[in-house]
Design a protein that fits this description.
By secondary structure, this protein is an all-alpha fold. It has helices at about 15-30, 35-40, 45-50, 60-70. Helix 1 packs across helix 2 and helix 1 crosses helix 4. The longest helix has 16 residues, at about 15-30. The protein is elongated and about 40 Å long.
């Protein structure tokens, strides 16, 4: 079994991380979860998250949320 994270399998980790960040954003900013998802998917933070080389996939939801808020 290959446990290495690459750009080819990184997509498997993203939905869980994205949903947590969107939930935090929706609660903190009083928007719908769908609005929060759209904002996050169009952000530079998401672009970095989907690139394995940045290692953003190591970040937890709170760290990703803070990164997202810092770069808006």
């Amino acid at each position: 079994m290959n446990l290495e994270i690459t750009n080819k399998n990184l997509y498997l980790l993203l939905p869980g991380k994205v949903s947590h960040v969107a939930r935090i954003y929706a609660e903190e900013n009083h928007v719908t979860p769908l609005e929060a998802l759209k904002l996050f998917y169009h952000s530079n933070t998401y672009k970095q998250l989907e690139n394995e080389e940045t290692k953003f996939w190591h970040y937890g939801p709170v760290a990703l949320y803070e990164e997202f808020m810092d770069n808006q």
